[in-house]
Design goal:
Mean pLDDT: 96
Structural class: alpha/beta
Helix content: 40-55%
Number of helices: 9
Radius of gyration: 17 Å
Largest sheet: 7 strands, parallel
GO molecular function, one term: oxidoreductase activity
Enzyme class: oxidoreductase
Low-confidence stretches: none
Protein name: Dihydromonapterin reductase
Order of helices and strands: EHEHEHEHHEHHEHHE
Strand content: 5-15%
Keywords: NADP, One-carbon metabolism, Oxidoreductase
InterPro entries: NAD(P)-bd_dom_sf, Sc_DH/Rdtase_CS, SDR_fam
Shape: globular
Distance between the termini: 47 Å
Length: about 240
């Protein structure tokens, strides 16, 4: 079996699309999920190792890492996709909100990167090419967000971890970020919201998950890019 790619939060949306893409390529994958959607059952039927993980507590993070190591001794890559879009308007317990955002978006990747480095190094030593860590951050790392303050701060922390881990693990493990803005709408997004959001970028389209897949493929195929963030934002920074 090839060394698997670990994709966190792959039960839906971008994470699911990534999992389906790599399964189609014959690449072994391990995914995490918190809610077991029907898509998780299908991924498991297709050969993916699907591990329940609750990243909202330190105990949950530790339990996942222990379980992961029971399934594999090496990893081709880690893609940190697990995320929460919680915000101040929906969660008046601001202290809890901030802690939760930091735990999911920064502390979880931080601990997994530290505790699972040996798995990535085993791949590098066997294949003689770098392994990869890829963080999915967000366009708001550059701008902040008045409506998602804690979320934006936590994604900015993850962006900074990209720089620190790339320096720590070079040249054996490359560490990069992908920073998207709009990729796919939610089913409940109304037409007014969709039209307003599309106008925020120069390209003015809903690009779809393939844009993230292409970006991650680029990073995995490179032997030279590290410590960088790929902006997948349709030129939004120029609007």
């Amino acid at each position: 079996m090839t060394s698997p790619i670990l994709i966190t939060g792959a039960g839906q949306r971008i994470g699911l699309a990534l999992a389906q893409h790599y399964i189609a390529q014959g690449q072994s994958i391990i995914i995490t999920y918190r809610t077991r959607h029907a898509a998780v059952d299908k991924l498991e039927q297709q050969g993916a190792v699907c591990i329940y993980a609750d990243f909202s507590t330190d105990e949950g993070i530790s339990a996942f890492i222990n379980t992961l190591k029971e399934h594999t001794t090496s990893l081709r890559a880690i893609v940190h996709n697990a995320s929460s879009w919680d915000c101040e308007a929906n969660n008046p317990d601001f202290a809890a909100l901030f802690d939760n955002m930091m735990r999911i978006h920064a502390k979880t990747p931080y601990l997994i990167n530290l505790m699972c480095a040996e798995l990535l190094l085993n791949y590098q030593q066997n294949e003689k090419v770098p392994a990869d860590i890829i963080h999915l951050t967000d366009y708001v790392v550059e701008t902040g967000s008045p409506k998602h303050l804690a979320y934006a701060a936590s994604k900015a922390a993850l962006d900074n971890l990209t720089k620190s881990f790339s320096a720590k693990y070079a040249p054996n493990i490359k560490v990069n970020s992908v920073a998207p803005s709009l990729i796919i709408f939610n089913e409940h997004d109304d037409e007014q919201y969709r039209a307003k959001t599309l106008k925020k970028s120069l390209m003015g389209i809903e690009p779809g998950c393939q844009e993230i897949i292409n970006s991650i493929d680029l990073l995995l195929q490179s032997h030279y890019i590290t410590g960088r963030s790929l902006p997948i934002d349709g030129g939004r920074h120029l609007k």
